Amino acid sequence: MSSQKVVIVTGASQGIGAELVKAYRERGYRVVATARNIKPTDDPDIAIVPGDIGDPDTARRVVAKALEAFGRIDSLVNNAGIFVAKPFTQYTAQDYAAVTNVNLSGFFHITQLAIAEMEKQRSGHVVSITTSLVDHAIAGVPSVLASLTKGGINAATKSLAIEYAKTGIRVNAVSPGIIKSPMHAPETHDALGALHPVGHMGEMADIANAVLFLETAPFVTGEILHVDGGQSAGH
Fold it and tell me: Which family does the entry's similarity section mention (predicted)?
């Protein structure tokens, strides 16, 4: 088995996920990248697994691919997520199902399988990408389904950190503000930037750097690291 570390990144086809794949490769990690629509790569140290992360079968295939291709799992980044901004009473059953499928089921199944493998080697790290809207709701940005699901992941992060504290497995989260990514059209950037005390949006590299900081911080577990331009501190 190679001693080169291996990370699984969900939601890896674009935006923050693609930035995370690039950042981990630059650190010498092998990467298992998964998303619904993800293109093949020529990099032999990146394994691609297409699929719906909310489907337990996708989670099984991702973990199996990591073990088959690279022989180990050292880290998991739960980056996959969807955000539906609607007034609470206008959410449909389809909205609820879609958000809980990706944000909750997509966290649960892959994390359970990855931690089971990490337990065998008595080391590992799980990082989940959540949102600072959990801590600081913003007038005009309806976000109940995001808070319901990502808030649950923040709570689960602390619970898992304590459950596995003595096994060598750390569990943390990064809680972003609004990040410049393909999710947000350029013409919205000024208005979205104004929602942050620092006056501008974050960059995708800010989130990748935060994840890599946690990766290299062995005494940090159960942490919800806010990378949000001051949003969670106040206005």
Answer: Belongs to the short-chain dehydrogenases/reductases (SDR) family.
Whole-number Å distance between alpha carbons of 195 and 229:
9
SS3 8: strand
* Residue 172: strand pairing partners: 127
Boundaries of domain holding 104: 6-233
CA-based diameter of the chain, in Å? 53
Look at residue 151 in the predicted model and tell me its pLDDT: 97
> Domain tally for the chain?
1
Residue for token digits 């499928």?
101
Q: In whole angstroms, what is the distance from residue 192 CA to residue 123 CA?
A: 39
Matching residue, tokens 């949000």: 228
Residue 1 lies in a domain: no
Q: Is the pLDDT of residue 56 over 60?
A: yes
Does 81 reside within a domain? Answer: yes
